[in-house]
Amino acid sequence: MHTILDDTLDRWIRETAPAGDLTCHTLALNEQVGAATFTAREETVICGSEEVARVFEKCGARARIHRASGQKALPGDILVTAHGPVDALHIAWKVSINVLEYASGIATRTSRLIAAASQGSGKVRIAATCKTFPGTRELSAKAVLAGGGMLHRLGLSETILVFDHHAAFFPSFEELVLAVPEWKSRACERKVIVEAATLAHAEALVTAGVDGIQFDKLPSPELTRCVQRLRTARPDLLIIAAGGVNETNAAELAATGVDVLATSAVYFGKPADIGASILPKSENGNSQDGE
Fold first, then answer.
1. What is the largest CA-CA distance in the chain?
2. In this structure, are residues 67 and 45 in contact, taking their beta carbons and an 8 Å threshold?
3. Residue ranges per domain, the chain?
4. For the chain, percent of residues with pLDDT exceeding 70
5. For 40-69, what is each residue's pLDDT tens digit?
6. What are 160's strand-pairing partners?
7. Cα 74–86–23 angle (5° rounding)?
8. pTM of the entire structure?
9. DSSP-based three-state secondary structure for 131
10. Which CATH superfamily is domain 120-267 in?
11. 3-state DSSP: the chain helix, strand, coil percent, rounded to 5?
């Protein structure tokens, strides 16, 4: 599982406590030692435990991971524990609860979406788009992977995906189709995928040699017909369904025979419900304090 690098963790800590924890300083708690415990309150696919443990260590505490990213937790399961100076625990706790709740929420929704899609096809893959809130893509991507999904694209430098916004700058659709061989030559190490609005456009693009077709918000009956026709022409063609993919329609869309369901739905929803406590170390017990 990918581990997020220190520069990102440092930014999270600096954003949370640019000059330390004023409350702990005012209450003169800096010299005391405590123990922090994070616990699942609902069935959850966990993500971010590794980052949380390192945040605690960066703040001056010691941490132990009980549930790693990608593992499932049931209500009451302990996820991460830590012990150390109280001010360090409070700074790390404020960063960590957000990381765990938001990332685990994405991971859990990804897992549920995969389960829903498998009712229509056991072969379809769930791919999360790059439609994340700015500055959160690295953690969001890890959460998708923790939930069992794949990444549609991390950014514009990674894949070639031609939308109607690009097509609008060609004099005609026919001239766009004629340009496909040149695109493939320029990017010979990459697949060329084009979004098509109709079956006729998709067939023309396939004949021109594109590696994949993406359909956006196409109704399932029409999508099924497109998949069947295109598979006859090119059995190896990558076919992606995008736009409005969620838990309620994933099975129906998967049953059309597409290879991939591309979605941003996993990013939007309730964070995971995770409890956190910070107590004097003796009250928490050695079994849960990271020792």
1. 75
2. no
3. 6-112+270-288, 120-267
4. 96
5. 999 999 999 999 999 999 999 999 999 999
6. 192
7. 110
8. 0.92
9. coil
10. Aldolase class I (3.20.20.70)
11. 45, 20, 35
